[in-house]
Amino acid sequence: MALNQRFRGYFPVIIDVETAGFNATTDALLEVAAVTVKMLPNGELEPDQTFHYHIEPFAGANLEPAALEFNGIDPHCALRGAISEQDAMKELCKGVRKAQKKAECQRSVIVAHNASFDQGFINAACQRSDVKRTPFHPFVSFDTTTLAGLALGQTVLVKACEAADIAFDQREAHSALYDAQRTAELFCHIVNKWRTLGGWPPAS
Fold first, then answer.
1. How does pLDDT run across 47-61, given as a tens digit for each residue?
2. For residue 203, what pLDDT band results from cuts at 50, 70 and 90?
3. Is 174 marked active-site?
4. Helices 144-152 + 176-196 axis angle, to 10
5. CA torsion angle for 102, 123, 71, 63 (degrees, to 10)?
6. Cβ distance 170 to 158 under 8 Å?
7. Crossing angle of helices 85-102/115-128, nearest 10°?
8. Cis peptide leading into residue 201 (ω within 30°)
């Protein structure tokens, strides 16, 4: 089975964002990471390509002190190597479109832990950046919080990873790159486990 047959033509892209607040329209997007997946000949999924950007706050963006204290990001630190939101979104969408096309999928779908949050920030950033061809479905998403609750009895990312025997260093948490990589492993684990238990498509 090919990847484009597994999720009704959708191409899963695991996303994690770090932000300066909870409001996607007013608060800055500061970091985004994305991990694509590929299907192995045996029908199992595994993480594939990684995209990662530190992002400059957009003009007029709100920076909530409590959010910055929580994620430890200094938006004005030159050592972050941050690029403009527009450049980040255009590069991300370009890379995802290329991977989506290679997999012969018709649309990308955001996979995230508490997906509505990450999806809201990605949609808002793409709109601000005037991205003409966003690969992501505007409202469909796969939420690993829900999937982990069903498959593993856990909804917190670190607890779900522990239940799945995925190593998780809490000192690295709240980095978009680290969290996206662990979420990608978690998503693949759940999909593969469902298959081995006889879910669609069954293991041959």
1. 999 999 999 999 999
2. low
3. yes
4. 50
5. 150
6. yes
7. 110
8. yes
